[in-house]
Amino acid sequence: MPYVNIKITKGGVTTAQKQRLVEEVTATLVNTLGKHPEHIHIVIDEVAPENWGFAGMLTTEYRRRQQAAASSSAKRKR
């Protein structure tokens, strides 16, 4: 009984995208391991961006910096 836990940051992911993840992960386990779809369990956990950190910063700070850099780059192109 495969159990897959997918963790993503909350926001910006649609129900349709989550459905596609479940379908494609299930298909991969069926095709690669020969598992039955009804035995596969997939859980998608959405973590608040302020609770997810990497590269020494919270995701909220990373996104803020990315937006600032994109905005600055767009201004220079004008």
Structural account:
This protein has 78 residues and is of the alpha+beta class. It has two domains: 1-47, Macrophage Migration Inhibitory Factor (2-Layer Sandwich), CATH 3.30.429; 49-78. It has helices at residues 15-33, 59-77; strands spanning 3-9, 41-47, 53-54, 57-58. The protein has a two-stranded parallel sheet. The protein has a two-stranded antiparallel sheet with strand order 3-4. Strand 3 and strand 4 (57-58) form a beta hairpin. The longest helix is centred in the first third of the chain and has 19 residues, at 15-33. It is elongated.
What attributes characterize this protein structure?
2 domains, 2 helices, two-stranded antiparallel ribbon, 78 residues, Macrophage Migration Inhibitory Factor, alpha+beta, 4 strands
Concise overview:
The chain is of the alpha+beta class and 78 residues long. The protein contains two helices and four strands; from the N terminus they run βαβββα. Helix content is 49%, strand content 23%.
Return the CATH class of the largest domain: Alpha Beta
**What is the number of independent domains?**
2
Oligomer category:
single chain
Distance between the termini: 56 Å
Cα shape: elongated
Query: Helical content, roughly?
Result: 40-55%
> Which consecutive residue ranges, at least 5 long each, have pLDDT under 50?
none
Tell me the CATH superfamily of the largest domain: Macrophage Migration Inhibitory Factor
Number of extended strands: 4
How is the main sheet built?
2 strands, parallel
Q: Give the DSSP E fraction (strand runs of 2 or more residues).
A: 15-25%
Helix-strand topology string: EHEEEH
What's the overall average pLDDT, rounded? Answer: 94
Widest beta sheet: strand line-up: 1-2
Count of helical regions: 2
CATH architecture of the largest domain: 2-Layer Sandwich
